[in-house]
Amino acid sequence: MRLDSLHCLAIAAAALSTCLAQLATAGQLPPTFVSTYRPAVERLKAAYTKVSVEGTLSVDVPGEGKSSQQSFSFRASGDQRRLDVTTTAQQGMGLEVGASEVNMATPIGSLNTYKKAGSDFFDNARERKYAGVVEGIDRRSLMNLPYAFDSSGTILDMLLRSSVKVGSVKWIRAQGEPLVQVTYQEEARHAGRSGVWNSTLTLSPQDGWALRSFTRTLVGSQPYTQTGQLEYATGADGIPLVESITVETTEGSRVIRRESVSVSDIQFGDPGQEWFDSFSF
Hints:
With 281 residues, this protein is of the alpha+beta class. The protein is built from 4 helices and 13 strands.
């Protein structure tokens, strides 16, 4: 990291340290944290909704001996999204190696298409509702995670919901890095289960305040936990470049699902309207 970036981070830490050392009052976020994080997370959202990304998606279901690997291309242009995936390997997932899908969401029309291995054109297509396709693209690609947990708003929007009770906001150090840790409790649905979750997330100020990790545990007799870890490379203008994402779901001590994303190329900027019209299939 450059010296000027370190200097700016030190100033930010000094300005926030007193506020973040205190527990959030009445389940609310400290105003200083909100005023600092809001422009940063909106900047991340703006960057990751005008982007082109290529890489590999992997899913592992250890207890059932199931797994899959797919190459992917993700493109976003404002409120338009597109995810192309091709299955390169699979075991027990009911997928066809070599088959490909296109998932495209635009406000004027959204659809999923499927093309079998060796086909010159897609074999079927389904028109879908816009919100459902966006949610599906986010859930599969995980490319919204630097700034959001779902398709309804940013991480800050989530923390400000009435269904969320914030516990604390504080500076921590992990492997020598300064991070901001937020603990909170929420009523939500994650990993297919609804209920009250005790959650923790960490943000990385040196990575443009992008999400670095999270843990959430469903309150109940049998521990059911989901964890996530994100790694970044340094990008231009302070916008971090996602390198990898891993999300793991466990029940007790047993891993029941592991999803991972490995990014081979990422380019910020509008990918162009040609990816979102009827001639792009």
